[in-house]
Amino acid sequence: MPLQTVEPQRLYRQIAEQLRVLIGRGEFEVGARLPAERDLARQLGVSRPSVREALIALEMQAWVEVRTGSGVYVLDRTGVTQQAANDTLAPAEWGPLELIRARRVVEGETAAIAATLAKRKDIDTLRKSIEAMTADADRGVMPLQGDRDFHSAIVQASGNGVLIETVQTFWDARRGPLFVRLGGHFETVRSWRAAIVEHHAILEAIRVHDAGAARAAMHAHMDKSHARFSASWRRTKRV
Predict the structure, then answer these.
(1) 193: helix, coil or strand?
(2) Mean of the pLDDT values across residues 84-101?
(3) What is the pLDDT of residue 81?
(4) DSSP summary character for residue 149
(5) Is 62 left (phi over 0), alpha (psi -120 to 50) or beta?
(6) CA distances, 123 to each of 4, 41, 116, 128, 200 (Å)
(7) Degrees, nearest 5: CA angle 224-226-230
(8) CA distances from 238 to 68, 173, 182, 190, 195 (A)
């Protein structure tokens, strides 16, 4: 038979495949609740965020249902075609929590650079972006565009084309179906208001040209974002 192209798989997809096999074998029956993330992570030898990304992928492919405030349950897949399940995720889509960690590394430095190089117009753009985010949150709308504009304005201040494209690619990956589904469970107007406060701290550090404070504020923002998306399924409430 002809050889098939070999493609590297994201870690969360490898975890999801193992769980799919176990569900297919009947190790977890329809309606059963899967073990807690911490237990799956320990048994698989991976991090809890990677398990979380795998569970979201399985939910998108109709293998499980995530019930906020309760846990993750195996679904009856009667009537679900394999093609329909496979069409929901691109093989190369980044894991959302892994993406946040990558952004922390890069955007911590772009914030420090912005604190050194930002001009008045850059500060004004950052301020207007936060104002737009606040206005959206006040209307009960997730302020995604204002958020993108804010992070884009920071890296634009660097004048480095590679960094600009990198950060914009990172942010646009946030619009992938896996991240959108994860956000559906954990993003609320309340969580965005907390994020807006964190944006103010970044802006203030850049405004006074304190590179160290800007880096630290961006790191804190990314760490808190990661924590919000890593909350327990049993404690979060969809809004």
Answers:
(1) helix
(2) 73
(3) 58
(4) H
(5) left
(6) 52, 43, 12, 9, 11
(7) 115
(8) 7, 22, 11, 11, 17
| Class of CATH domain 11-86 | mainly alpha
Distance CA 149, CA 154 (A): 9
* pLDDT greater than 90 at residue 91: no
Q: What is the DSSP letter of 6?
A: P
Helices vs. strands in the chain: H and E counts, helices first: 11, 2
State the sign of the Cα–Cα–Cα–Cα dihedral 8, 12, 18, 21. negative
Task: Give yes or no for residue 156 having a pLDDT over 90.
Answer: yes
The domain segmentation of the chain, as residue ranges, is 11-86, 96-229
pLDDT (tens digit per residue) in 104-130: 999 999 999 999 999 999 999 999 999
Q: What is the DSSP letter of 33?
A: B
Contact 122, 110 (CB under 8 A): no
The pair of structure tokens assigned to 197 is 């406060």
Decide if pLDDT at 133 tops 90.
yes
Tokens of 201: 């701290």
Fold of 96-229: Four Helix Bundle (Hemerythrin (Met), subunit A) (1.20.120)
C-beta of residue 104 within 8 angstroms of C-beta of residue 144:
no
The predicted structure's pLDDT at residue 174: 85
